[in-house]
Amino acid sequence: MNLGEPLRVGFVTVATIALLLAAGPAFAHAHLLSEDPAAADKADASAPSAPVTELRLTFSEELNAAFSKVQLKDSMGMAVDGTAVALDPKDPKVIVVTLAAPLAKGEYEVDWTAVSNDGHKTTGTYKVNVAQ
Known about the structure:
The chain is α+β, with helices and mostly antiparallel strands. The protein has 1 helix and 7 strands; from the N terminus they run αβββββββ. Residues 19-24 have low confidence and may be disordered.
């Protein structure tokens, strides 16, 4: 057995691990951490009793406002009119959906697309129940 072979294998292994660790942040994606009001499928979620005039989606990293979006649909799958979507000026990890009028009682679907500042895109959907 050649004594240089274990050194070469060790070097390749260490170099590969170093490259993977260094590239880790480049492979990051913005993951949805929480939503307000809470998604209907969460164990602690109950239909909000106060009028719902905004939605807040909190992500794991800062978002690109130009490409991140949210669409709110009613129980018939129709887009809810009068919504404005923007990043929270105090926290670029939060998307705020401001509604022109409080949501009526019923179930709604929230479809979101989050694009992090490094360009990675994630998407998702959740449901919200409104009690009044």
